[in-house]
Design a protein that fits this description.
- 30% of the residues lie in helices and 24% in strands.
- With 339 residues, it is α/β, with parallel strands linked by helices.
- The protein has a 7-stranded mixed β-sheet with strand order 3-4-2-1-5-6-7, sandwiched between helices. A 6-stranded mixed β-sheet has the order 9-8-10-13-12-11.
- The longest helix is centred in the middle third of the chain and has 17 residues.
- The protein binds NADP nicotinamide-adenine-dinucleotide phosphate (NAP).
C-alpha cells in the first residue's frame, strides 16, 4: 500500500517507447510530485538518456532489485514484461499501474478509468490495470449516458492510429509514405498489408469466434469498468493511416429515450469530455486536432432513426494520452490523493 509522502520515487518501465515517452512528459506537465524518476527499458537501451523536467536521466535495464525504494511504477513495456516484472515490483512494496493487457481481466486487479470507476482503486493489491486505449475513451462517454438512461446495447467501429501499435508502427507509416511518394518499393514489417493510404480491419490477433482480440477487449473491459455485465456490445476495430488519435463511431441503444440535445447537455457536464458538435459550421472532432489534448471530444450527436431509443455519435481522443499515459498518471494522482 502506498504511504503518504510529499514527493514520490516514480519509475517508468518501457520509458523509451511511444507510451513511456508520453508518460514522462505527462508527469512533468501535470507537476506530479516526483522526488526521483527512474527509467527502465530493455538492455538495448541501457545507458541511453531521456529528459525529464530539463534533467537528463539514464535508462536502466530491469533487475530483481530494481524496484527497491520505488513507490509507484508506471509499466508500459508489453504484456510479457508485465507478467514477469509487475509481481516483482508489487512484492517490493511498489504500486504498479500497468498499461499492458496482462492483468486487465484478472478478478484480483482493478481496471480503472478515473472518471468512471475510481472507487475500484481501493481494492488493489499492488497492481492496477490501465484499460485498452479504444476502451478508455469509449467508457468515459458511455458512463454518463448509462447513469442517465441505462445503456442496453452499443455498436462501435473504431478508426485507430498507428501509434497504438507502438514506435515501430509510427516509423513504418512514415517510411512507407516517403517511399511511395518517391516511387520506391515499400516494406511491410509491422502490419500484414501496406498501412500508408490503406485501411486494415484487423487489430491484434484473430480469435476462434472471428473477432480480433482488440474487439473482445472492448467488450470485456467495458463490462468490468462499468461494473455491469448486462451491457451488450459489439465492436469492429480498424487501423487507419493516422499517426495519433483514435476515432470511434458509436451507436448506443438506451432503455430511456434521450434526445440529441439531452445527450449534449449530459456530456457537457461530464468530466473529461468536450462536446464539439456544430455540424452546420463543420465543427466535429478529427484526430489531427485532438492529438496532444487530454479530453475525449464528442461530435455528430444525432438520433438513430431506425430504432426506438438510439443515439449515434463520433468520438475522438489521443490514444497516447487519455488512451494510455494520461489515464495511468491520473490513476497515480488518485492513489496519492487517497494515500
Ligand atoms: N501505444 C498505445 O496507444 C497504447 C495504448 C494502451 C496500451 N498500450 C500498451 O503499452 C505497452 C507499450 O506500448 P508502446 O506503444 O509504448 O510500445 P513501444 O513503442 O514498442 O515500446 C515498448 C517499450 O517496452 C520496452 N521493452 C521491450 N522489451 C523489454 C524488456 N525485455 N525489458 C524491459 N523493457 C522492454 C522497450 O524498450 P526498448 O526501447 O529498449 O526496446 C520500449 O521502451 C504495450 O503493452 C501496449 O499494448 C499502448
Amino acid at each position: 500500500m502506498l504511504k503518504k509522502k510529499t514527493r514520490y520515487v516514480v519509475a517508468v518501465v518501457g520509458a523509451t517507447g511511444a507510451v513511456g515517452n508520453e508518460m514522462i512528459k505527462t508527469l512533468g506537465q501535470r507537476n506530479f510530485p516526483v522526488e526521483t524518476l527512474r527509467l527502465f527499458a530493455s538492455e538495448r537501451s541501457e545507458g541511453k538518456t531521456l529528459e525529464f523536467n530539463d534533467k537528463k536521466i539514464s535508462v536502466e535495464a530491469l533487475k530483481d532489485t530494481s524496484f527497491k525504494g520505488i513507490d509507484i511504477a508506471l509499466f508500459s513495456a508489453g504484456a510479457e514484461r508485465s507478467k514477469i516484472w509487475a509481481p516483482v515490483a508489487a512484492k517490493s512494496g511498489c504500486v504498479v499501474v500497468d498499461n499492458s493487457s496482462q492483468w486487465r481481466m484478472d478478478p484480483e486487479v482493478p481496471l480503472v478509468v478515473p472518471e468512471v470507476n475510481p472507487h475500484d482503486l481501493k481494492k488493489h493489491k499492488g497492481i492496477i490495470a490501465n484499460p485498452n486505449c479504444s476502451t478508455i475513451q469509449m467508457v468515459v462517454v458511455l458512463k454518463p449516458i448509462h447513469d442517465a438512461a441505462k445503456i442496453k446495447r452499443v455498436v462501435v467501429t473504431t478508426f485507430q492510429a498507428v501509434s497504438g501499435t507502438g514506435q515501430k508502427a509510427i516509423n513504418e507509416l512514415m517510411q512507407q509514405t516517403a517511399d511511395l511518394l518517391n516511387f520506391k518499393e515499400i516494406q511491410c514489417n509491422v502490419y500484414p498489408y501496406q498501412i500508408a493510404f490503406n485501411v486494415l480491419p484487423h487489430i491484434d490477433k484473430f480469435l476462434e469466434n472471428g473477432y480480433t482480440k482488440e474487439e473482445m477487449k472492448m467488450v470485456n473491459e467495458t463490462r468490468k469498468i462499468m461494473g455491469d455485465n448486462s451491457i451488450r456490445l459489439t465492436a469492429t476495430t480498424v487501423r487507419v493511416p493516422v499517426f495519433r488519435g483514435h476515432s470511434e463511431s458509436l451507436n448506443i441503444e438506451t432503455e430511456k429515450k434521450l434526445s440529441p440535445n439531452e445527450v449534449r447537455a449530459i456530456l457537457s457536464k461530464a468530466p473529461g469530455i468536450i462536446v464539439y458538435d456544430v455540424p452546420e459550421k463543420n465543427i466535429y472532432p478529427v484526430p489531427l486536432n485532438v492529438a496532444g489534448k487530454d479530453d475525449t471530444y464528442v461530435g455528430r450527436i444525432r438520433e438513430d432513426e431506425s430504432i426506438e431509443n438510439g443515439i449515434n455519435m463520433w468520438i475522438v481522443a489521443d490514444n497516447l494520452r487519455k488512451g494510455a499515459a494520461l489515464n495511468a498518471v491520473q490513476i497515480a494522482e488518485k492513489l496519492i490523493e487517497t494515500a
